[in-house]
TrEMBL record:
PROSITE patterns: AP_NUCLEASE_F2_3, AP_NUCLEASE_F2_4. One of its GO terms (biological process) is base-excision repair. Its EC number is 3.1.21.2. Binds 3 Zn(2+) ions. Gene3D superfamilies: Divalent-metal-dependent TIM barrel enzymes. Zn(2+) 2 binds at residues 142, 179, 216, 263. This is Probable endonuclease 4. Keywords: DNA damage, DNA repair, Endonuclease, Hydrolase, Metal-binding, Nuclease, Zinc. Zn(2+) 1 binds at residues 66, 106, 142. Residues 21-279 form the Xylose isomerase-like TIM barrel domain. It catalyses: Endonucleolytic cleavage to 5'-phosphooligonucleotide end-products.
């Protein structure tokens, strides 16, 4: 069970493992390019070597890419739709070069087309992204909070998309990133032990725990079912410490290996969050 955070790669990807160590992270997530858009920086062999050397130096084996924010696989605008497909294909290649375990990505919004047509378009896009992919960096669908008709806020919806996107050749290629704030804001209770057990029982029934590769550990500024994507430091939001204690206990009891990555507000509070989660893990 590894505990870490989203880490800045400002100045180059080689800095990400150094920054991760500053926070005491045992695993981490980062952007290999600007999340807002633009051309991705070149990953030359020397840069890749330095990045991997730094990871080895600080004993960081599990790290992940997060795709850019502008991704929308349900956009009615071809420039955005095909640009999103191209960016995700490129990020998977970059992730493989860097040795990343996976790449989290959001599916997009149904506001242009409506839910049914949007899901069809998302499935078509994912099929295109993974059809010739040889693996190495696993594509991970991130659960959303459902704000603004964002797709992927229900387990049933994610299960449907995975089922329709994979073929015999790409079976079991897709994984899932479970965000605690997003799931809670989508209506999945995580505030105490029975609620955590119920939520992950539903997840396993519909999607399968074998698909779950990473958990974004974030408290929520807003209430259960609010559909408002607002992260908070652990214990200061509506999920509360009892919920995160139950979360750690659930995976520890079931002996399911998991990487816990925080995306709490980017200030020194993240140091406290990592120490807190480590304490919960180590005292159970």
């Amino acid at each position: 069970m590894n505990i870490g955070a989203h880490i800045s790669a400002s100045g180059g990807v080689q800095n990400a493992p150094i920054n991760a160590t500053h926070y005491g992270a045992e695993c981490y997530q980062f952007f290999s390019r600007s999340p807002q858009g633009g051309k991705a920086p070149n990953l030359d062999p020397n840069l890749i070597k330095e990045f991997k050397t730094n990871n080895k130096k600080y004993n960081l084996k599990n790290y992940y890419l997060h795709s850019p924010y502008y991704i929308n696989l349900a956009s009615a605008e071809n420039r955005i739709y095909y640009g999103s497909i191209s960016a995700l294909k490129e990020e998977l290649k970059r992730g493989k070069l860097l040795g990343a375990k996976g790449m989290m990505f959001h599916l997009g919004s149904a506001k242009d087309l409506g839910q049914t047509a949007a899901i069809k378009k998302v499935v078509k896009a994912i099929k295109e992204i993974i059809k010739d992919y040889q693996g190495g960096c696993q594509p991970l669908i991130e659960i959303s909070a459902g704000a603004g008709l964002i797709i992927g806020d229900e387990f049933e919806e994610i299960a449907e998309i995975i089922k329709k996107s994979e073929t015999a050749a790409t079976k079991n290629l897709l994984g899932v990133c479970f965000d605690t704030a997003h799931a809670f804001e989508s209506g999945y209770d995580l505030r105490e032990e029975k609620a955590v057990q119920k939520t992950f029982s539903q997840f396993h029934k519909l999607i399968g725990l074998e698909r779950l590769k990473v958990i974004h550990v974030n408290d929520s500024k807003t209430d259960l079912g609010s559909h408002s994507d607002r992260h908070e430091h652990l214990g200061y939001g509506k999920i509360g410490l009892a919920g995160f204690n139950a979360l750690i206990k659930y995976f520890k009891t079931k002996k399911i290996p998991m990487d816990f990555i925080m995306e709490t507000p980017t200030d020194e509070g993240i140091l406290k969050d990592i120490k807190l989660l480590k304490k919960l893990r180590d005292t159970l």
